[in-house]
Amino acid sequence: MAAYIIGELLEVTDPAGFEEYRRRVPETIARYGGKFVARQGAIERLDGQWQPKGLTIIEFPSFAQAKRWYDSDEYRELKALRLRTARTNLVLADGL
């Protein structure tokens, strides 16, 4: 069953560093069978108060595979780079 990592971009504090993260992360995602479903495209609020500045959705073959990527050596350095250069929220959700 597919699983999804959903990331909300709150604020970029270091644009050059965050651009490096954005450039390097796709290769690590692909190694774990993941693919971008949405990546910082247009957003229109339809209901409620949620108004993310940026939204990313990454699909993985399974919940376990998404966790493998997130906890991987390949992503560890990039995760630290993301945390230094931006404020984000991330969740992992099972698909149907």
What is the topological layout?
Layout: E1 3-12, H1 15-31, E2 35-39, E3 54-60, H2 63-71, H3 73-85, E4 86-94
Antiparallel strand pairs: 1-3, 1-4, 2-3
Helix pairs in contact: 1-3
Protein model, in words:
The structure is a single chain. Strands 2-3-1-4 form a 4-stranded antiparallel sheet. The model has no long low-confidence stretch (mean pLDDT 95). It is α+β, with helices and mostly antiparallel strands. Helix 1 runs antiparallel to helix 3 (73-85). It is built from 3 helices and 4 strands, in the order βαββααβ.
Q: How would you briefly describe this protein structure?
A:
The protein is an alpha+beta fold and 96 residues long. The chain has helices at residues 15-31, 63-71, 73-85, and strands spanning 3-12, 35-39, 54-60, 86-94.
Radius of gyration, in Å, reads 13 Å
Structural class: alpha+beta
Give the DSSP E fraction (strand runs of 2 or more residues). 25-35%
- Please tell me what the overall shape is: globular
Secondary structure: number of strands = 4
**Secondary-structure element order, as H and E?**
EHEEHHE
Q: Regions with pLDDT < 50 over 5+ consecutive residues?
A: none
Question: Descriptors for this entry?
Answer:
alpha+beta, 32% strand, four-stranded antiparallel sheet, 96 residues
